[in-house]
Amino acid sequence: MNILLIFIGIALLVFGFILLLKNIKLLKSGIKMEADIVDVLKKKQENTDSDGYTTTTDMYFPVFKYTYEGQEYTKESSLGVSNKRKYQVGGKLNIVFMPDTPEKVKVKNGFNMWVLPVVLLGLGVMFIISYFVA
To answer: CA nearest 60: which of 91, 31, 30?
Structure first.
């Protein structure tokens, strides 16, 4: 079991570090622009806790449109929010993408760019520390 902690920790560290480096490269070399929100999709998300209780939450995913070098793209964000007023049709969304792959767009916000990689790095460190403490 202890050896599993170190492997999980290393995997989280590597994944978090790679994600952080990709995001830094994307911000340095990528095209940053505003996209127009053209729709907001409402989806049900179910979560079951350890006691077996299931809760359902409405999640809202923006669909946005942007144009790069004469080509129009429409994408649905992979990250939704529970606040239905966060995204409104006609609103704007900051996006970033590499010039050679404009179809692979990332919504430019704190969670996407910084929080997730830092959390993965932190968890990796915690798993590795718990290996040496246990």
So the answer is: 91
Domains of the chain: 2-133 (2.40.50)
Distance CA 36, CA 64 (A): 5
Give the three-class secondary structure for 45: strand
Report the pLDDT value the prediction gives residue 117, as an integer from 0 to 100. 92
What single-letter amino acid sits at 126? Answer: M
Nearest of 125, 89, 107, 133 to residue 10 by alpha carbon: 125
The terminus-to-terminus CA distance of the chain in angstroms comes to 10
pLDDT at residue 118 in the model: 93
Q: Examine the pLDDT at 1 and tell me if it is beyond 70.
A: no
